[in-house]
Amino acid sequence: MGKTTGIIGTAAVIIVVAGAAAPWYTGKQIEQEFRHGVAQISDSAPTRVIEYDRGWRTSDAVTRTVIDTREGPWQIDVHHHITHGPWGFGWARIDSVPDFGDQQTTVAHYFGDRPALEATTTVGFGNDVNVDWQSPAFDDTEIPESPGARLVWGGMKGHYQLDGDRTTSSVSIPSLDFQSDDATLTLNALKMDSSGAGGPDWPNMDNFWDARFRTTLNQLNLQDKAESVTLKLGLDGQGQLRDNGDDGLSMNASWQISNLLMKDPTLAEPLIVNSATQTLALKHLPRDATRRLLTELSDVDDSLDEDQVSGQVQNIMTRYLLEALKGTPSAEITVAGLNTPQGSLEGKLALNFRSMNTEGEPLATALERGNLTLDMASDRTLLTHLMTLTDPNARPEQTLAGLEQEGLLARDGDRFRMDIEMNSQDLRVNGESHPELYMMLPLLLMSLNG
Q1: Residue 238 in contact with residue 254, Cβ under 8 Å?
Q2: Dihedral (C-alpha) 96, 100, 101, 102: value to the nearest 10 degrees?
Q3: Of 52, 70, 69, whose CA–CA distance to 61 is shortest?
Q4: Partner of 427 for a Cys bridge, out of 10, 237, 247, 438, CB 3.0 to 4.6 A?
């Protein structure tokens, strides 16, 4: 019995010592991983660890991120309280709260003594990472910088998970209401969900393109009285990105718009859309060029002015277009139903390219390799309304009559239709050849290439 008791006692001591040492050991590993993770984040936003106080069961750290803005650098410190595993939550739990520095007093005006934003990160035993963040709601509050303006914030909740090289994320904003003498912004039930490839190695991974996403917005209401601008709409959009192996990459997306109202000084009268459904399908996209595109777009220096950023993005997209045209890309856009008080419109545009069999510039050979079809039908009243939206002096009836006489529009009762087919030999509109229009296309492509 004494020997057995001794064995049990020795085992108990080992268990206690191991249990006491485990948080200390994992704390060392957590610090290394924490610093490594911050270094990776710093590639997109300059971030560094300015404090790290490692203890036995817990540690405390502070990271500092500096974001360049037009008003100068904006410094954000985030305080992290780290609990070492191994416990029920996994290897580590990190509770993070940002400190907004000079803007902290302004933030406290709305949130009081509550954190404006807080996040909890857990690292599981399978090295899966889960991040939950939230921003608490606050009631009707005046905005000191704008006398008479008030803000109501319905809060925000979000979740992110990384498991291997797959991610899922969701963000939900129940409501936002801004009111002032000059402007109104109301947002109701915004939700964004996505899943797909991700992680530290993205996009340098085989399945970097695979993803699904969806965005729903019950209502957006924007009114800017000073600029005479009004925008109201509801939105439900979704899409899927797929890697089809030797067949290249593809993207399929659809979105439904409801109760759209747009007023703008450039419009002669408001644009009203009761409902509209559109789809987009892209196929045979080049894998390596797409990977470079995503990397280059993420590296665009957004501290530059708007024109410089636009120029960089345009150059990146032009290079990608030239690479894509070396293959056999295709695009298909449909308007399944555009319903307005003035009538409805439906249409489908499809464009695809044969492979290059000869040497030459991709854009220069695009005309001989391409095939385009367009089928569109619309109520006459809607076409006349669209023509006068931006030009109140337009003469839509005469314009429609001229297009019908030239064979570019075909009348079908009280509706007009247009069927276009273009290939390497001809451009046909509503069954009739139009060589004069066909001869103009090379000039257009040359101007794009320049």
Answers
A1: yes
A2: -170
A3: 52
A4: 438
Name the strand (E) or helix (H) holding 372. strand 370-379
Residue 39: the pLDDT is: 83
Nearest CA-CA partner of 25 in 60, 57, 61: 57
User: Per residue in 232-274, pLDDT tens?
Assistant: 999 999 999 999 988 899 999 999 999 999 999 888 888 999 9
Long-range contacts at 345-349 (CB < 8 A, ≥ 24 apart) = 345/376, 345/377, 345/378, 345/379, 345/382, 346/376, 346/377, 346/378, 347/374, 347/375, 347/376, 347/377, 347/378, 348/373, 348/374, 348/375, 348/376, 349/373, 349/374
CA angle 25, 30, 32 (to 5 degrees): 105
**What is the pLDDT, as a whole number, of residue 260?**
95
Q: Which residues, in sequence order, are bridge partners of residue 374?
A: 349, 420
Ordered by start, the domain boundaries in the chain are 1-136
Count H helices, E strands: the chain?
8, 22
Provide the CB-side half-sphere exposure for 310 (13 A, CA): 3
Q: Which pLDDT belongs to residue 315?
A: 92
pTM of the predicted model as reported, rounded to 2 decimal places: 0.82
The secondary structure element, H or E, covering residue 241 is: strand 229-243
Q: How far is Cα 270 from Cα 361, in angstroms, rounded to an integer?
A: 44
SS3 breakdown of the chain: % helix, strand, coil, rounded to 5?
30, 45, 25
Q: Return the pLDDT at 423.
A: 85
CA distance 444 to 437: 11
DSSP class of residue 6 equals H
Point out which residues pair with 419 in neighbouring strands.
375
Instruction: Give the chain's residues under pLDDT 70.
Output: 1-27, 43-44, 302-303, 358-360, 440-450
Rounded Cα–Cα distance for residues 169 and 158 (Å): 7
Token reading at 90? 């996994």
Question: Residue 17, by phi and psi: left (phi above 0), alpha (psi -120 to 50) or beta?
Answer: alpha
Q: Which two tokens stand for residue 53?
A: 């106080």
User: What angle, rounded to 10 degrees, do the helices at 306-324 and 287-298 form?
Assistant: 170
**Residue 376: what pLDDT?**
94
